[in-house]
Fold each of these.
Amino acid sequence: MPIRIATRGSPLALAQAEEVAARLRAAHGLAESDIAVVAMKTTGDRIQDRTLAEAGGKGLFTKEIEEALIDGRADLAVHSAKDVPTWLPDGLVLSAFLPREDVRDAFICRIAGSLAELPAGAIVGTASLRRQALVLRARPDLEVVTLRGNVQTRLRKLEAGTVHATLLALAGLKRLHAEAEAAALFDPQTFPPALGQGAIAVETRADDSRVNDLVAAINHADTAAALTCERSFLDVLDGSCRTPIAGHAAVHDGRLRFGGLVISHDGQTSFAAERSGSAAEAEALGRSAAREIIDSAGEAFLATLRDGH
Ligand SMILES: NCc1[nH]cc(CCC(=O)O)c1CC(=O)O
C-alpha cells in the first residue's frame, strides 16, 4: 500500500502535498506510486460568507484531515502551518516542517502600486483580522471588508470589482506560480505576517515510527525552531482566533530572532515584544515574548480584542 498523504483539495493545498511527496520520494528513492495524495474537503473550505473567526475559529482547515489520520485512512497530513491550531488532537504530532518560503504578505491591486497609493475610501477585502488591523493602522482612511475564499476565488472577486485591493501570502502565490499578481510586498517589520505563514507542516501519528522515520529526513531544523517559537507565542496569547496577532521568527547561524505583535481591530493600539537567543530556546523565547505582551497590554485589553472591539 502506498504512503497516503491527506490534504485539503484547494490548488494551494495540493501543491503543498505534492511538494512533500516529491521530497519524500527524493529522500528515500521512492517511486511515484509509493506515495498517494488524498484530497478532502474541510469545514473551512465550505464557509465562504463569513470570517473564520465568525464561523467559530480554530482548526476549521485541519479537523477532517486529522480525523483521517487518527482513523488510519491516511499516514500523514500536510498543512499550511498557519492554519494549524497550537493544540493538536491526542496522539498527533507536527513531525516536520519544510524549508520556509518567503513570509511576506503581498498587496494585490489593479488601481494602485502599493497600499500607500490607494485613494482615500478605497475598499480592501481580506478575511484576516490581522491584515484588516494592519491595513487600518497604516491607512485609517480606507475601508476594510471581509473577503473569503481560496486564492483563485479572491483574485476573481478582485477582477469583478467587489474590492479595490486584497492581500495574500506571497508564499501561496509562489506555490501557485502566481507571484506576478503581487503589486507590492509588505515589509515584515512594519506589517508582520501571521505566525506560521509561509511554512508547510507535516502531521503524523506520534506512535507511527515507520512514517515518522521517513518524515524526519525532510525536516528543516531552522524552520522547525522558528515555528516552535511562533507557535508557543500564539499558544500563550491566543485563546481564540478573534485576536489580531502577528509575528515572525527566523534562525541565522543558530541564533533565533523573534518579533511578535498584538493589535486592536481598528489598528490604533498595538503591543510588541522582541526576543533573541539560541535556536534551542525557541519555545521559551516565544512564551516569554507573549508574557511581556500580556503584562504590557493587560488582560482587560486582550479580552476586549477577543470580544471583537
Ligand atoms: N488561511 C489561508 C492560507 N493558509 C496559508 C496560506 C498561504 C500560504 C502560507 O502562508 O504558507 C493561505 C492563503 C493566504 O493567506 O494568502
Amino acid sequence: MSEAKRPIDVAVGILMRPNGDVLLGQRPEGKPYAGYWEFPGGKVEPDESILAALKREFVEELGVEIESAEEWCGVEHVYPHAHVRLHFFISRDWRGEPQSLEGQAFAWQGSVGVTPLLPATIPLLEWLDQLRYAGSGR
Ligand SMILES: Nc1nc2c([nH]c(=O)n2[C@H]2C[C@H](O)[C@@H](COP(=O)(O)OP(=O)(O)OP(=O)(O)O)O2)c(=O)[nH]1
C-alpha cells in the first residue's frame, strides 16, 4: 500500500467530427472528480493493449465502435487518488451514434466550453485547437 505508486495506463479517445467538433463526457457520481469533464476512456486492464482498452471503453460507455484511431500524445499526471499515464488517441472513423450507456452527460464541442475539466486534460485543449483550426482546413 505504501510503495511508490506506479502509473496506471489510461486509454482516452477524442472523437473528431469532420467540422472539428470533439466529444466530451462528464464524470459520474462516485468517481474521483465527479462532475468534471473529460474525453471518454478508462483504465487499461492487465494483459490488454491500449487500443483494445480504448475500443472496449467506447463500446461500454457510448455504444460506439471505433474503426480506427491514431495515437496522438501521452501525458502523465499525479493526482491525490492516482498517478496516471494518459494515452490520447484521435479517431475520425467510428460506427454508431454516441449514447449515454452509463448515465453520464456528453457534449460535442467546438472550442471547448464545458467546465470544469480534469486538470491533466486542460493543456490538451490548446494543442487540439492548433491541430483542428490551424493549417489544413480539414
Ligand atoms: N477518461 C479520461 N480520464 C482522464 C482524462 N484526464 C485525466 O486526468 N483522466 C484520469 C482520471 C482518472 O484518474 C483516470 C481514468 O480513470 P477512470 O476511473 O475514469 O477509469 P475507469 O472508467 O476505467 O474507472 P473504473 O470505474 O474502472 O475505476 O484518468 C480524460 O480526459 N479522460
